């Protein structure tokens, strides 16, 4: 069955960077965009950006521009999201989710989430 | 960006009750690019409804979605114990994709 398996929890100091991975299986990797969504403790969902595994085009909301980098490795069907210049406001669970490429679609499968704690 | 406002913030109901959740967009969402997700505590969100009214595979028919333009509704016809959770709407017509702040359905 379709799975998105994310890397484990991270604890980072303010100012550091974190890189979260999302490994896809049981579907054609390049047929689906990967989105990143985060959820701060007790809060709602916030969309962070999208990567197209076909051509590595990415798009992110203005608030994350310059701080978020999304990449992919087609040989392992893995997408990476790196967030830099971390502050305590970046403490959250980070999810990857897929949406069909070439179309506007909802997110039909989600990873299990990666907890990132930013603390001095 | 498109702001989605969900109401009510919390809905206190009993098993067997009907739940009606609202999602209002600050501008029109074309072609009903509107989804609903369910999130149980400690779990990732799960897609329930896409394109405003289409149930995702495996979603029971007690869940239904309706609406267009700026006003959308998720209805749970008869609440089961596993339906007590938080529900989010999302628009995927405009960038950035945005979510509502959520409606919590809890036990009365």
Question: What is the strand and helix layout of this fold?
Answer:
The complex is a heterodimer of chains A (120) and B (108).
Chain A: E1 3-6, E2 10-12, E3 18-25, E4 32-39, E5 46-51, E6 58-59, E7 68-73, E8 78-83, E9 92-100, E10 109-110, E11 114-118
Parallel strand pairs in A: 2-11
Antiparallel strand pairs in A: 1-3, 3-8, 4-5, 4-9, 5-6, 7-8, 9-10, 9-11
Chain B: E1 4-7, E2 10-13, E3 19-29, E4 34-39, E5 46-50, E6 54-55, E7 63-76, E8 86-91, E9 98-99, E10 103-107
Parallel strand pairs in B: 2-10
Antiparallel strand pairs in B: 1-3, 3-7, 4-5, 4-8, 5-6, 8-9, 8-10
What does this structure look like?
The complex is a heterodimer of chains A (120) and B (108). Chain A contains no helices and 11 strands. Chain A has strands spanning 3-6, 10-12, 18-25, 32-39, 46-51, 58-59, 68-73, 78-83, 92-100, 109-110, 114-118. The N and C termini of chain A lie far apart (40 Å). With 120 residues, chain A is mainly β. In chain A, strands 2, 4, 5, 6, 9, 10 and 11 form a 7-stranded mixed β-sheet that branches. Chain A is 0% helix and 49% strand. With 108 residues, chain B is an all-beta fold. Chain B is 0% helix and 55% strand. Chain B is built from no helices and 10 strands. In chain B, strands 2, 4, 5, 6, 8, 9 and 10 form a 7-stranded mixed β-sheet that branches. A 3-stranded antiparallel β-sheet of chain B has the order 1-3-7, with no helix packed on it. In chain B, a hairpin with a 6-residue loop joins β8 (86-91) and β9. The A-B interface holds A 35, 37, 44-47, 59-61, 95, 97, 99, 104-113 and B 1, 31, 33, 35, 37, 44-47, 50-51, 56, 88, 90, 92-93, 95-102.
């Amino acid at each position: 069955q379709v799975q998105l398996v994310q890397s484990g929890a991270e604890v980072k100091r303010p100012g550091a960077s974190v890189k979260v991975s999302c490994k896809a299986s049981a579907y054609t990797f390049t047929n689906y965009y990967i989105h990143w969504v985060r959820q701060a403790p007790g809060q709602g969902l916030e969309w962070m950006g999208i990567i197209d595994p076909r051509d590595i085009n990415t798009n992110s909301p203005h608030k994350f521009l310059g701080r978020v980098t999304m990449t992919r490795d087609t040989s392992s069907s893995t997408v990476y999201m790196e967030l830099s210049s971390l502050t305590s406001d970046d403490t959250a669970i980070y999810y990857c989710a897929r949406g069909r490429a070439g179309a506007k679609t909802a997110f039909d499968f989600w990873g299990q989430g990666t907890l990132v704690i930013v603390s001095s | 960006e498109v702001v989605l406002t969900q109401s009510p913030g919390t809905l206190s109901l009993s098993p067997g009750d009907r739940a009606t959740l609202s999602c209002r967009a600050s501008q029109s969402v074309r072609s009903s690019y509107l989804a609903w997700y369910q999130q149980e505590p400690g779990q990732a969100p799960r897609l329930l409804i896409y394109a405003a009214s289409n149930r995702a595979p495996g979603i029971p028919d007690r869940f239904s979605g309706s609406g267009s333009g700026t006003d959308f509704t998720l209805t749970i016809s008869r609440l089961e114990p596993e339906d007590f959770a938080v529900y989010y709407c999302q628009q995927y017509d405009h960038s950035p994709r945005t979510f509502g702040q959520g409606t919590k359905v809890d036990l009365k």
